[in-house]
Automatic annotation (TrEMBL):
<dbReference type="GO" id="GO:0016788">
    <property type="term" value="F:hydrolase activity, acting on ester bonds"/>
</dbReference>
<dbReference type="InterPro" id="IPR037027">
    <property type="entry name" value="YqgF/RNaseH-like_dom_sf"/>
</dbReference>
<comment type="function">
    <text>Could be a nuclease involved in processing of the 5'-end of pre-16S rRNA.</text>
</comment>
<dbReference type="InterPro" id="IPR006641">
    <property type="entry name" value="YqgF/RNaseH-like_dom"/>
</dbReference>
<dbReference type="Pfam" id="PF03652">
    <property type="entry name" value="RuvX"/>
</dbReference>
<keyword id="KW-0690">Ribosome biogenesis</keyword>
<dbReference type="GO" id="GO:0004518">
    <property type="term" value="F:nuclease activity"/>
</dbReference>
<protein>
    <recommendedName>
        <fullName>Putative pre-16S rRNA nuclease</fullName>
        <ecNumber>3.1.-.-</ecNumber>
    </recommendedName>
</protein>
<dbReference type="GO" id="GO:0000967">
    <property type="term" value="P:rRNA 5'-end processing"/>
</dbReference>
<keyword id="KW-0963">Cytoplasm</keyword>
<feature type="domain" description="YqgF/RNase H-like">
    <location>
        <begin position="1"/>
        <end position="101"/>
    </location>
</feature>
<dbReference type="InterPro" id="IPR012337">
    <property type="entry name" value="RNaseH-like_sf"/>
</dbReference>
<dbReference type="InterPro" id="IPR005227">
    <property type="entry name" value="YqgF"/>
</dbReference>
<comment type="similarity">
    <text>Belongs to the YqgF HJR family.</text>
</comment>
<keyword id="KW-0540">Nuclease</keyword>
<dbReference type="GO" id="GO:0005829">
    <property type="term" value="C:cytosol"/>
</dbReference>
<keyword id="KW-0378">Hydrolase</keyword>
Length: 140
């Protein structure tokens, strides 16, 4: 099963994809959030190219694990994307994925300026990989 993950922000949406076996997550790209939410041509092309079986949206929960206003906004936007694309949708806790992405990019020697545009797709791949690992563990 191929899973497409979305790190939906107010400006940008980071996108990552799993391999067909559902074992490895890879960052794909970053698109303007409006294009993804509206299923614009650029996002439709991505769906056609990768042909995912499932959408996985990162949910920005608070550190205590509760759902705030931002999480409600993401739920509504992700549901709109799922409804338009016809794909099933699941949510995953994305807490601290952006901070982890920044840490990884810093270790690669990137400056804050160079990181712009990369953080979101790396974050999407981080929470997708965690989700894939949990799915595999459930099957054991």
């Amino acid at each position: 099963m191929r899973v497409l993950s979305l790190d939906i922000g107010q400006v940008r949406c980071g996108i990552a994809i799993s391999d067909p076996t559902g074992r490895v997550a890879s960052p794909v790209c970053v698109l303007p959030s409006g294009e993804v939410i509206g299923c614009a041509r650029s996002f439709k092309r991505l769906l056609d190219d990768w042909q995912p079986d499932l959408l996985l949206a990162g949910l920005p929960l608070t550190l205590s694990g509760s759902s705030g206003g931002q999480a409600q906004r993401i739920r509504a936007q992700a549901q709109q994307i799922a409804d338009t694309s016809g794909l099933p949708l699941e949510f995953v806790d994305e807490r601290l994925s952006s901070q982890e992405a920044k840490r990884m990019l810093r270790e690669e020697g990137l400056t804050e300026r160079d990181m712009r545009g990369k953080i979101d797709m790396i974050a999407a791949s981080i929470f997708l990989q965690a989700w894939l690992d949990r799915q595999r563990a459930k099957k054991r």
